[in-house]
Amino acid sequence: MPSGREARGEIMTVQQPPLTERFFWPESMAFVGATSDLTKLRGRLFAFTRTTGYTGKLYPISSREAEIGGYPCHARITDVKAPIDLAVVAVPAKYVPDAVEDCAAAGAKTVMIISSGFAEEGGAATELQARILDTARRTGIRIAGPNSEGFWNGVGNVCATFSPVIETLPHDDMPHAAPHRRIGIVSQSGGMGFAIFTRGRNLGLTFSHVVSTGNEADLSAADYMGAMVGDPDTQVIVMLCETIRDGAGFCRAAKAAAEAGKPVIVCKLGRSDAGARAAASHTAALTGTHSAYRAVFRKYGILEATDMDEAVAIAAAVATCPLPRGRRVGIVTASGGGGTAAADIFSDFGLSVPELSPALQARIETLVPPHASALNPVDTTAQGQSTGPVSAEICEMMEASGEVDMLVAIVSAAREKSVSLEPGRIKAILERGALPMLAWTYTLASKHAKHTAAQGGSVLSTDARHVGLGLSKLADYADHLRAPADDAGDPGPVLTRPPGARVLSEYEARRWLSGYGLGGAGDVLADTPDAAIAAAEGMGYPVVLKIQSPDILHKTEVGGVRVNLPDAAAVRAAFGNIVSNTAVHAPAARVDGVLVQKMAPRGVELVVGVVNDATFGPIVMLGAGGVSVELFGDVVHYPAPFGPARAEALLRGLKSAPLFDGFRGAAPIDLAPAAALISRISHAAAAGRDIIAEMEFNPVILHSDGSGISVADAVVIFRD
């Protein structure tokens, strides 16, 4: 965060360079606060770097020791008369700002601050972090952390972390299932980032980097993600985060990852919004912070995990498997119960287990006992496996048949000396690239079994749900890559906030958005019963009357709406009733008049809303049920702006989408007018991103009689 001095312009800032490969691949490293005392984190930090194969220059900085591990110490980093790519700072927090100044003076390109006691503690400690950022902006040095667990580069043997996981590396004898498909980890929790690493290695996955972002005073998670997108040694990216501090940077990195064909898996912590916040609109109540994240994930094809194990399961699938053509699973199992359980679980993830053709069943039946099943799941029975592994041969038959899109082998993997997996044949299936293949054991997995699977280029999971999740997310990613690029549509005019306005009533909102085709042609604002009757006579009965006030968002709650009024007498009575109700229930409200509208025909009701998310900007929400949207909870979200094609795809993504196709004998609905409207709303949201807090159009009524759509209400709320 900027300090008060910088805000007053007293500090000259320089253009900060982007994160370069010298961060992950430093040719020289200095350790400020180095010690030979291995009971201290900073002692282990320098020891790990010395003992894990780093071949660059090392400079321990200590005024108390002459040398550490054979490396001569310098009292200050400015005493090092050589280039320094990375300085690692591990001293008490109160000394860190001066240490960073010294690092900048010494010409260090990046500083990794391990020390804690900054903004994460609040209070005066926040000012310490502000001083560090002042130095970065004034000198151009980049800051990683503070409060970081550091990073590890597994390709270049660069260790700048105190994580105890490093001590396990010399004992890691797990084969690498996909050595050329390395995974990079970006984690806002250092401990959990390295936990993902160990869980992945337990399955045979290969990793390029693990980075702990710390407080992200300068460099953000998006910066590290972007660096990994450009890193030829990283093919898959896993991010664990609580929040994204640089939404625009994250979106740029996500877009670049999709274009590079590098899957990104995000485990977002803090998904539950802290209670249903008191919201001014249905849209706000149904568009919490995590909804905005999911909207962005959807746009860029990011694969979401809910915990570390899910992140590892998804990473295992995308790192070891080719992309599938579809979602049909072929299962080969030695346990009938295991096959049934897997089929049930896979269906929960939107996968299908189709019955195989009679011809393919006949071929499989030549390999299995008479009492086995060749339907799918193919149950070889334990007897069938006892005469020699047949799973791989059956998988090869299904691979060649074109009847399935992915394969799963289900085995018992408890024995240490044998398992019914043939690594050579599994590897050949994966290398041919036609079908992904994973394995599940319904027993615990022996070390031998896990090694055997990894030698075959695959992973052996002990959780069928993780297999189903991994294959489902793999199919999602394939769908995203094959989908046509979003057509953003045509932008509309510039929007300017009306002077002094906080909320626009329906009549005002329609006028303000008229340049986006949302003007409500034919509506009349009346200030007397006679004016309302004249308007009704002009547009034809039946009509609707609604109170108009920027202080009343939910008009029905104050008795401010009357519908289906058939004649002048009804209009006169309704006008008086609405005005009197408003005076009773909202006596302080400013009333602009009563809006007269033509009564819209019945149809399928939607709500279209916008919330301007603090991280990602305007997010459009579509929901089924109109004013009852919170009851049904059938909603989708997407970042603005987008074109009509995307809008129609979002409509088709609602659970209630069958209503558009003539459900139970009703006439089908042409979605083109609704898609065009939703696209225009998204462009209005983008045009007003600096001034709009929320917009809602509710209900939007879709008609099946060829009359298009009706927008029955609208409201605009501006940012404070």
TrEMBL record:
MF term (GO), any: ATP binding
KW Amino-acid biosynthesis (keyword) present: no
InterPro entries: ATP_grasp_subdomain_1 (IPR013815), CoA-bd (IPR003781), NAD(P)-bd_dom_sf (IPR036291), Succ_CoA_lig_flav_dom (IPR032875), Succinyl-CoA_synth-like (IPR016102)
Span of domain CoA-binding: 23-118
Record's keyword annotation contains Thylakoid: no
Keywords, in A-Z order: Tricarboxylic acid cycle
GO biological process, one term: tricarboxylic acid cycle
PANTHER family: COA BINDING DOMAIN CONTAINING PROTEIN, PEPTIDYL-LYSINE N-ACETYLTRANSFERASE PATZ
Family: In the N-terminal section; belongs to the acetate CoA ligase alpha subunit family.
Name listed for the protein in its UniProt record: CoA-binding protein
